[in-house]
Specification:
Blueprint: H1 2-17, H2 19-48, E1 59-66, E2 71-74, H3 78-87, E3 91-105, E4 111-118, H4 122-126, E5 132-133, E6 148-151, H5 153-160, E7 170-173, E8 176-183, E9 196-199, H6 204-208, E10 216-221, H7 227-244, H8 246-249, E11 252-258, H9 259-299, H10 301-309, H11 314-350, H12 365-392, H13 395-401, H14 407-443, E12 455-461, H15 470-485, E13 490-496, E14 505-511, E15 524-530, H16 534-538, E16 542-545, E17 559-563, H17 564-570, E18 580-583, E19 588-595, E20 610-614, E21 623-630, H18 638-648, E22 654-659, H19 660-666, H20 669-703, H21 705-713, H22 718-747, H23 763-789, H24 793-798
Parallel strand pairs: 4-9, 6-8, 15-20, 17-19
Antiparallel strand pairs: 1-2, 1-10, 1-11, 3-4, 3-7, 3-10, 5-8, 6-9, 7-8, 12-21, 12-22, 13-21, 14-15, 14-18, 16-19, 17-20, 18-19
Helix pairs in contact: 1-11, 2-9, 2-11, 2-12, 9-12, 9-14, 9-20, 10-13, 11-12, 14-20, 14-22, 14-23, 15-18, 20-23, 22-23
Length: 800
């Protein structure tokens, strides 16, 4: 113990005596540890930490699978759900839910809240007890008894000021009176954005139509059961359903997946890629510090030799070096932890991440333990190189030579570390370059809309209770369009149930003369309900036929407009204006127009066949969007748009008011954020690699001062000496670039799914990155090369 304390004391004194070295090493370590701490905190909270429910490993999602089309995650139909709930033994319980948005009025300004309609056993499946009240009873899913609501803790605090008397109180939801049954504990959110839950009531149509897939199913495995057993039983049930109901269930399967896996699927690959990126940054930092320590150890080789001559064993010298490395890592780790906390706050502020179950993301005991272990491992890792060099150094030869140095072995070690640094930097910079090109490709996509920056969108909902009749809704929208059209600067105004980019609903269509029978492999089309003037307001070109008019209303022949993708897929060789399509509900629609393709389902996705239906004949759902086009700045219309809507109905909440251009940009905010992070890590890797190259070349020049002085004394010019140094740097760089390119090709598949318009093996990106690393290496080596070329031969030869 005394020897260890002596080593610690000596290490601290040594670091204090060399402030420049210590500062550079600590900064390098802190950056690597800080980045890893921030990213690992998110990875742990989202991917590694169990769900905050009792026995979370028993929670599963049950999906239907359309094996004919290759759809592997399809919600269930109402009847399939009821069959599963009552007919499986591997599942202790099974609940159904359907996502919904609700309008809250009274008790403050109108507000639209995300939530779900759920079956009565929904909360029992999760095993969560409300903070106040009790959840729905078994009779809640009956029409007339369903007007009950459960609030999240956040909503209860935000809108109702945490009123402890909220249970049993009536609140207004979608224009109807609902009784508050319970308040859930803090952090409970399922789905992840849900803040309130009401009972679901299946309609007769939903109960009779097994082709209507809308119910998400979440269950709890029976005690002693397993995921494999549940999957086997679900396969038997699916086979039985296919035999009993071949028209709807033939070709369909059932499967169970761990709930935690399903809740993190969307972010899993991204987080692992970012974790790998910061891991590379830490490795580069370790290589850099190891090089610094090698250089420093080379300068101390005479000290080590003298200590050895006085009786110090080599093991004692190695322990001293490792102790100094661990002390350095510990101090850097403390600084890195502070950077990690700040970086985590910045990370969550830039792109809020929601952990499964709604728990907050923060640094906890496990993160601290992993950071401490990582810091210790880092110290041992970058301390291993100088310790190994000390073992291999000829101490007696060093005393006789009268100078420091580590010989050829030390030079090879430093060169190998630089090659590794450059290789890792190539991988990171290549990944960032691919992501940058991918985002640029997304932003360059032709969305099919003219001048989206001149279109203002305002989303609102029409509650069923306040507008129960189809005619009531049509009247409201027509009056709103009249008001909006009269606003200053407005050239066109329209309404739709879905503004791009939003995928919208799907329905099966039968093309007259092409499909003779109703079968489930009929083509699928997206659908949108729009008002006359929609295509002018959105700037979508009319290619053939006409757009909708005021005459396209209930009581007149039902019509549809299709996009070019619909025509190309279903009747490329026919005149679309002579064609009719029919839905599964046996509704015949005459095609009256063809419009250009729009990126309705999002940037970077292939245009899906889409049908547009007149809002006076078909109005889908309660959510609507007002779109107004202006010849000026659309942001000046934000206040008048709100006023136009609230003048007609002050109880309507606005979910969002902004330009179509902003909405399209927001749709790529996540890949843009991922690209930003990866670019930051790549830039950090470049800087660290440049520092590493500079350090090695600077020390190489100092180590070879006599040799270069001799060369110049024998007639070598400054240019030739400069080329010698740069050639050595380029040799190391070439090795690192080659290593990095091979690694990039091998690892590219991990980000392939996140790329659009560019392949992970893109030769242009690899070439540009390789050249960039060469330029960085030359820039970092130029100062040592210049110093070498300006040596005075006489001074150099007298230097030792």
């Amino acid at each position: 113990m005394d020897a260890l304390l002596q080593d610690l004391s000596y290490s601290i004194r040594t670091l204090v005596r060399r402030p420049l070295f210590t500062t550079l090493a600590l900064a390098t370590i802190a950056l690597g540890i800080g980045a890893n701490t921030a990213i690992f905190t998110v990875v742990h909270a989202v991917l590694l930490r169990p769900l905050p429910f009792p026995e979370p490993d028993r929670l599963v999602m049950v999906w239907e699978q359309d094996q004919t089309r290759g759809w592997d995650r399809v919600p269930g139909s109402a009847e399939d759900f009821l069959t599963l709930r009552d007919g499986t033994t591997a599942l202790e319980s099974l609940a159904g839910l359907s996502g919904a948005s609700f309008t809250l009025t009274r008790d403050g300004e109108p507000e639209q809240v995300q939530g779900a309609r759920v079956t009565s056993d929904f909360f029992d499946v999760f095993g969560v007890t409300p903070s106040l009240g009790s959840p729905f009873g078994p009779d809640a899913n009956v029409d007339g008894a369903h007007r009950r609501v459960v609030l999240s803790q956040d909503l209860w605090n935000r809108r109702y000021a945490g009123d402890p008397g909220i249970v049993g109180r009536a609140i207004e939801v979608d224009g109807e009176s609902f009784e508050v049954s319970a308040v859930m504990p803090a952090g409970f959110h399922f789905p992840s954005t849900a803040e309130m839950w009401t009972p679901v009531v299946f309609s007769e149509n939903q109960l009779q139509d097994r082709n209507w897939h809308f119910i998400l199913m979440v269950g709890r495995l029976a005690e002693g059961s397993s995921l494999a057993a549940a999957s086997d039983e679900l396969a038997v049930v699916a086979s039985r359903l296919a035999q009993d109901f071949p028209d709807s269930n033939e070709g369909w399967a059932l499967t169970a997946m761990p709930l935690h896996t399903e809740m993190t699927t969307a972010v899993r690959d991204t987080l692992w890629v970012l974790a790998g990126a910061v891991g590379f940054v830490l490795l580069i930092a370790c290589a850099n510090v190891a090089n610094l320590l090698l250089v420093r150890a080379a300068g101390r080789s005479r000290e080590f030799a003298l200590r050895a001559s006085l009786g110090a064993a080599r093991g004692r010298l190695v322990r001293q070096l490792l102790t100094e490395s661990v002390v350095l890592a510990g101090l850097g780790g403390l600084l890195g932890l502070g950077l990690g906390v700040a970086g985590l706050d910045l990370l969550l502020a830039m792109s809020p991440v929601i952990a499964p179950g709604g728990r907050p993301i923060g640094i906890d005991g496990l993160v601290l333990a992993v950071t401490a272990a990582g810091t210790l491992a880092t110290g041992l890792l970058f301390g291993a190189a100088p310790a190994w060099a000390a073992l291999k150094t000829d101490l007696q030869g060093t005393i006789r030579a009268g100078s420091g140095g580590q010989g050829e072995g030390g030079r090879r070690a430093r060169g190998a570390l630089v090659v590794a640094e450059i290789g890792l930097a190539v991988v990171l910079v290549t990944g960032a370059g691919l992501m940058i090109r991918s985002v640029r490709s997304l932003l360059d996509v032709d969305v099919g809309v003219r001048s989206p920056e001149q279109v203002m969108l305002a989303q609102f909902a029409l509650p069923q209770a306040a507008y129960p009749q189809f005619e009531d809704r049509v009247l409201f929208l027509d009056q709103l369009l009249e008001r909006a059209s009269g606003m200053p600067g407005v050239t066109h105004a329209a309404v739709t149930n879905l503004a791009p980019p939003a995928s919208g609903g799907q329905f099966h269509v039968r093309i007259e003369g092409v499909h003779d029978a109703w079968v489930m492999d009929l083509p699928v089309a997206r659908s949108r309900s729009v008002s006359p003037g929609y295509f002018d307001a959105m700037g979508v070109p009319l290619l053939r036929g006409r757009t909708f008019t005021a005459e396209d209303r209930v009581g007149t022949p039902q019509v549809a407009i299709v996009d070019q993708a619909f025509v190309d897929r279903h009747f490329p060789d026919l005149d679309p204006l002579t064609q009719q399509i029919r839905t599964l509900r046996d509704t015949t629609l005459q095609i009256v127009g063809v419009v250009g393709n729009v990126a309705n389902t999002g940037l970077g996705t292939e245009a899906e066949p889409t049908t547009y239906l007149p809002h006076r004949q078909f109005m889908m759902g309660g959510g609507m969007t007002l779109a107004v086009r202006t010849d000026g700045d659309p942001r000046t219309l934000a206040a008048p748009t709100r006023e136009a809507i609230w003048t007609q109905d002050p109880d309507l909440p606005l979910a969002g008011v902004g330009t179509l251009a902003d909405r399209l940009a927001d749709s790529v905010s996540q890949p843009r954020f991922n690209t930003t992070l990866l670019t930051v890590f790549a830039a950090l890797a470049l800087v660290l690699a440049a520092v590493g190259i500079y350090g090695v070349m600077a020390y190489a020049v100092s180590e070879r001062t006599r040799e270069m002085g001799l060369r110049m004394a024998l007639g070598a010019t400054g240019n030739s000496v400069r080329r010698l140094v740069l050639r050595n740097a380029l040799a190391l760089t070439a090795g690192g670039v080659a290593l990095g390119v091979v690694a990039s090709l091998a690892l590219g598949r991990f980000i392939a799914g996140a790329l659009y318009g560019v392949k992970p093996t893109d030769p242009l990106t690899l070439t540009v990155v390789s050249l960039l690393l060469v330029v960085v290496a030359l820039a970092a080596s130029y100062v040592p090369a210049l110093r070498a070329s300006r040596l005075d031969p006489q001074v150099a030869l007298r230097g030792d």
